[in-house]
Input
Amino acid sequence: MECRAGCAACCIVISISSPIPGMPHGKPAGVLCSQLTENGKCRLFGQPERPVVCSALHASEEMCGATDEEAYKILAELEELTQPAE
Output
C-alpha cells in the first residue's frame, strides 16, 4: 500500500520521542510535525535526519484504513494504547 497523498495522519496523530529537526524534544501526539509541508509531505523523506521511527513506518491497511479519517482514528487508538499508565 502506498501513502495517500495529503493524509499525513502519521505526521500528526502519533507522538515521536526522538528529536526531529525543528523539534529537538520530539513531537507530541496531535501536533503537526515541523517537517510536514503544506501539501502533507515530509521534508525529511529519504534524508538521514529523518527519525528511525518515521522511516520504519510503512503504510498498511491495518494502520491507514481505507480513508484519511480512518487513519486518524486507528492511529489515535494506537497512540492511546501505547501511552504509559498514569
The radius of gyration is 12 Å. The chain has one domain: 9-81.
